Amino acid sequence: MGTEQRLTLTALQMMIRDSIVLALPGYYWISAEIAELKVNYSGHCYLEVVEKNPVNETIRSRARGVIWAARYRAIQPLFESVTGESLREGITVLIKVSVEYHELYGLSLNITDIDPAYTVGDIAMKRLEIIRRLTDDGIINMNSELEFPSRPGRIAVISSASSAGYTDFLKHLTENNYGYKFETELFNAPMQGDETEKGIIAALDKVAARIDQFDLAVIIRGGGSTSDLRWFDSYDIAFHVTQFPIPVVTGIGHEKDVTVTDMVAWKSFKTPTAVASFLIETVHETDLILQELAGRLIQAARYITMEKGSIITTLARRIIPSSSMLLSESREKISSSALTLSSQTGALIRSAGKDLAILDSTLKSETKRTLTFARTEVSLKTDLLRTNSLEIIWKKNQQLNAAEGLIRMADPKNILKKGFSFTTKNGKTVRSAKELQSGDKIISHFYDGKINSEVIKTETKI
Predict the structure, then answer these.
(1) Which of 118, 239, 346, 409 is most buried, judged by most C-beta within 10 A?
(2) Torsional sign, CA 390, 396, 398, 400
């Protein structure tokens, strides 16, 4: 390799810089999204801008940029006054840049101006796209079509616990002039910043999990910059509100602007206090209607009572003579019926008396005959039983006498008297000669005594 082809890194970087200056002279207007933004202690604003694929949101290109402090102090207030937004991450801007290249820091964009009208248009276009999408999906009016409770008393509040708007809402709601009582429960969520969308959706989901415990939900926040409202121009928040099964009321805290979340809610108000006033007046209007209906019912009842009272009086005047005549006729009929009934009853009693006398005589005769027959039957059975018993006793006595004779004959004493004897060895009866040996001591037992002997010899029969 020849020495004329060798370059230092610095020389190469300077060649790149010069090439860029020659190729890209002057300034260019470019559109990009701010991905990162930091303002350092000296007032310089450092950014990272990106371009995303509109289909899948992947990053196509990336570049670093800087707004020097002097320019930033002029650009920032103008941008905010026109757009209502501060320069922040996530917004799309149209910036005027010159391309610079530095040997140490590489490629960067020197931003000298920002067109706020472009950002306004971009924000508006994104907002219109969200509204169009909700409309095309047929859900933009779903929550507003729900029936609102006539006496909303159980309220799920989605707000930040530290929000002044939340404090004002509770104070106004509880210190109402009518003494109405409301039950409120806070579902804490951030009301501005990158976590707003995620936090509000999570809070809505928590309320939905206990939906039977609430009459409605309110989303409220205190005052703030116009740019803070942009967090509520969210399709995902709006979608959740449209799908919510109970009415959602918003009080996000601005007089002029209406967010997409406000548009899809059942009703929106400028401030949290206005939301509280609406709830109080709704209950009060219901009470007034009920009071009016109660008054009408009382008047109607009085009118009906007066009108029907005269009719009742007229009917009473007509009924009394008719009743007297009917009573008189009834008395005559009852008297005649009573006489007839008395005569018939006497005949029946006399007839029944005769029948009872005949029945009594018959019963006595049958009872006497039955008793006589029973006595005869018992006497016969008693004699038969006595005869059978004597015969059985005689037979049993004969059997006992025979058994007694056999027992006496089997008595060992009577057998010994006949000349028999028996032999024992060591207290046991000897039944065979084979049980004895020479020298054994034995005892012979007789009727009148016993003899002790010693065996000298034994002989057994084969």
Answers:
(1) 239
(2) negative
